Structure prediction request, 80 residues.
Amino acid sequence: MSRADRSREKPRAMIHRRILDVAASDPEASLAAIADEVSGASTDLVDRVLDEYGCPAGEPIPTFRTTLTTKRHGGPGRVR
Prediction:
């Protein structure tokens, strides 16, 4: 099954659905910001869920490595 096929499936866990909902509500949110909003989620889990199901806003999501190196909005501690 390809990634495109999986992206049409319903999320198999509630935490996956919550991650996708938070990502859809704020397309500019970093992986870390999404993880902070979803109880029990790590940035690694957020990265895997968005990779598996795709970005709900239809835009590319930066990889975890990018989140560690790219600043977002110039704010301290905020990363992309």
Notes: The mean pLDDT is 74.
